[in-house]
Amino acid sequence: MALLAGLTGGMGSGKTTVAKLFKALGAYVLDADEICRSLVEPEKPAWLEIVDLLGNGVLRDDQTLDRRKVAGIVFKDPEKKKALEAILHPRVIEEEQAIYKDILKNDPGALVIIDAALLIESENYRKVDKVIVIACDEETQLQRIMAKNKFSREDAQRRLQQQMPLEEKIKYADYVLHNDSGLSELKKKAEALFHQLKQLAV
Ligand code: ATP
Questions:
Q1: From the CB of 97, is ligand 1 less than 6 Å away?
Q2: pLDDT in tens, 42-82
Q3: CA distance 49 to 184
Q4: Domain-by-domain residue ranges, the chain?
Q5: Cα dihedral sign for 97, 99, 105, 108?
Q6: Ligand 1, from 22, 140, 148: best to mutate by most atoms within 8 Å of Cβ?
């Protein structure tokens, strides 16, 4: 029996780092953001719908979506944000399910992890067997966001305020992985969790 788990957490919590650790241990990792980018390539159905919704102004010269412009519009317009999510989320989830089924054809005991910042907001948590939330205290999160993205403290704080609060995400979690100490500690915790999940997948 295979297992599909969703890995989520706030910005800078350590999702990518944990996903890489899981991958190194032998899990299949699907990156929701990468899947989303592939679904909005020029002329694909989602791209057409987004251009229809937001206009040609969100396109670069090469016809690809300018994600910063898209983000700029929907940040100020909740209705458009909702409409954009209605275009993207179901398609991303559908694609993930298709990839998962494909993996299972070759590896019926696979452990597959979806790395998805919006696992809960997109309702995708309903489609996975287990939900893993990476937690860390807000100050650590701010420091990591500032260092990774070269954001000011104010920018990092603003980004965090736009997100679903960590306490809310934790309510959906089957496993909470606390990532407040160093990388070697995180590695130990990720390994322990990996073995727990792997046992459920056999
Ligand atoms: P984003 O939401 O921006 O995609 P994320 O949740 O995927 O972020 P990561 O990219 O894994 O988070 O981690 C954010 C930054 O913090 C990275 O530079 C990463 O190397 C660092 N980091 C994560 N966990 C630790 C840790 N335990 N100790 C030190 N640095 C860490």
A1: no
A2: 999 999 999 999 999 999 999 999 999 999 999 889 999 99
A3: 45
A4: 3-35+95-201
A5: negative
A6: 148
Q: What is the pLDDT of residues 86-102, one digit of tens each?
A: 999 999 999 999 999 99
Question: What is the residue-averaged pLDDT of the chain?
Answer: 96
Residue 17 near ligand 1, beta carbon < 6 Å:
yes
Q: Count of alpha carbons within 13 Å of 18, Cβ hemisphere only?
A: 33
CATH 3.90.550.10 fits 3-35+95-201, yes or no: no
CA of 14 to the centre of ligand 1 (A): 4
Atom 8 of ligand 1: nearest residue by CA position: 12
Query: 63: which DSSP letter?
Result: S
pLDDT score at 75: 86
Q: For residue range 4-15, what is the model confidence (pLDDT) as tens digits? A: 999 999 999 999
Q: What is the C-alpha to C-alpha distance for residues 190 and 17, in angstroms, rounded to an integer? A: 10
**CB-CB neighbours of 121 under 10 Å:** 16
- Cα(148) to ligand 1 centroid in Å equals 8
Verify whether ligand 1 is closer than 6 Å to residue 186 (CB atom): yes
The pTM (predicted TM-score) of the whole model is 0.95
Which residues does 112 contact at the CB level (< 8 Å), separation at least 6?
A: 2, 3, 4, 5, 27, 28, 29, 30, 100, 103
H helix or E strand, kind and range, residue 8: strand 3-9
Alpha carbon nearest to ligand 1 atom 2, residue: 11
